[in-house]
């Protein structure tokens, strides 16, 4: 795959808590150079990223309920609306990991449907990706959550925050693709650091890649 084509799969990401504003500025400038699909940054940097990328088609993505999803439903909705107001084009929301492991899928479904409804009501064209943290899930839990995400009003199911014990795997992408079908989007994130891994994720069914090594990955392309 050519560099220009691969770049449009990539959400170039900095979410580490020690990141500086200068790191975010550099991330955005690199995104402009390589024409990545999006930058994914913490909520406090959405306005700055939007200003830098104002003259481009690069999306500004931020995270909601990050990194464990343990905020209340009302807090997540406020976070999402605030991010949209600040200029976000995409929101990556973390499901409540405690509810997942407690098998309270009913609460997860209720929260996601309420969140997606409120975000879509803004008529902002917002894209919603739901992080299910596959590294802590059984296959049955992954399947159950993927079905809930598909029916919630979201646009993507996403594998990982990068804060768990593992990230995306080929097996997970194949399982999610089998579960959601060909008409729903998947974002692979966590542990994707080179061109070969990136292509393996895409070939397994990923539509988007969340990576912190975006330049290295693209430079590995043809």
Topology record:
Elements: H1 3-7, E1 10-14, H2 21-34, E2 38-41, H3 46-52, E3 59-64, H4 73-86, E4 90-94, H5 97-101, H6 105-120, E5 127-131, H7 139-150, E6 156-158, H8 170-180, E7 185-189, H9 195-204, E8 208-211, H10 214-219
Parallel strand pairs: 1-2, 1-8, 2-3, 3-4, 4-5, 5-6, 6-7, 7-8
Helix pairs in contact: 4-6, 6-7, 7-8
Structural account:
- The chain starts with a helix and ends with a helix.
- It has one domain (3-219): TIM Barrel.
- Helix 4 packs parallel to helix 6 (105-120), helix 6 (105-120) runs parallel beside helix 7 (139-150) and helix 7 (139-150) crosses helix 8 (170-180).
- The radius of gyration is 16 Å and the shape is globular.
- The protein is built from ten helices and eight strands.
- The chain is of the alpha/beta class and 222 residues long.
- Helix 8 links the parallel strand 6 and strand 7.
- Strands 1-2-3-4-5-6-7-8 form an eight-stranded parallel beta barrel, surrounded by seven helices.
